[in-house]
Write a structure and sequence with these properties.
The chain is α/β, with parallel strands linked by helices. The chain contains seven helices and five strands, in the order αβαβααβααββα. The protein has one domain: Alpha/Beta hydrolase fold, catalytic domain (Rossmann fold). The chain has helices spanning 41-56, 74-85, 113-119, 142-147, 167-175, 178-183, 218-232; strands at 68-72, 91-95, 153-159, 201-202, 205-210. InterPro entries: AB_hydrolase_fold, GCE-like_dom.
């Protein structure tokens, strides 16, 4: 079964429409607030994914031990954040999620914090912008968020032509989760060197890079299903 949502229904993807997001329904919501830890679009989208699972828990035909979440690009960022917070997601899949998603911020390659917090400031809490051009002072990097998914299964996908999302940084982030997965006697990625195009790795942590641009293709979906089949059967 597949459950999906239009993310605009949860938080319309424009800064000036924040008052029309579900965040505005909460009693402590303040219109126009710039509190440093104010949740913004990615946090709200992630929250929305968990509400879908709330519904699925009441649907008797759904096996709750086999729930996966997949997101592409900005929704890849949200999927990772959902997976980090909600242990009901047993497989967490990020496709071309880039800066603020799977890619290591401290590589400062492709899209960076300065660019993303200027053009898309409504995606992140205001505190994130203090690291624009100041990545070396981040107290953590994205691999630590990915590691929060352990001991559940993580899959990261990249595209060779999507340099804006930093495919190498996405791979390294997944690779650096190894130490946490090893604590659970689980297998991560074997090498710090990314695999060749169209050579997927399927351990407890999985990864592939395919030819092409920023997109979700049949090849991506087939690998995601292979990974789910591996861990759900």
């Amino acid at each position: 079964a597949v459950a999906t949502m239009c993310y605009h229904d949860i938080y319309p993807d424009r800064a000036e429409l924040r008052d029309y997001s579900v965040a505005s329904l909460f009693p402590d919501y303040i219109s126009g607030s710039k509190n440093h830890d104010e949740w913004e679009a990615i946090g709200v989208w992630a929250w929305g994914s968990s509400r879908i699972v709330d519904y699925l828990e009441r649907e008797g035909r759904i096996d709750m031990s086999k729930i996966a979440i997949m997101g592409h690009s900005r929704q890849g960022k949200a999927a990772l954040w959902s997976g980090a917070q909600d242990s009901r997601f047993k497989v967490v899949i990020s496709n071309d999620s880039g800066c603020g998603g799977a890619a290591l911020s401290k590589r400062v390659y492709g899209e960076n914090i300065a660019r993303i917090t200027t053009v898309l400031s409504h995606w992140f809490c205001p505190a994130f912008s203090q690291y624009a051009g100041n990545e070396e002072n981040l107290p953590f990097d994205q691999h630590e968020m990915l590691a929060l998914i352990a001991p559940r299964h993580l899959y990261v996908a990249s595209a060779e032509g999507d340099l804006w999302a930093d495919p190498k940084g996405e791979y390294l982030s997944a690779y650096y989760t190894n130490k946490v997965y090893e604590l659970y006697k689980m297998k991560g990625l074997d090498s710090p060197v990314p695999p060749a195009v169209h050579q997927p790795i399927m351990n407890d942590v999985g990864y592939h890079i395919r030819a092409g641009k920023h997109d979700v293709t049949d090849y991506d979906w087939e690998r995601f299903m292979d990974f789910c089949d591996l861990h759900f059967k």
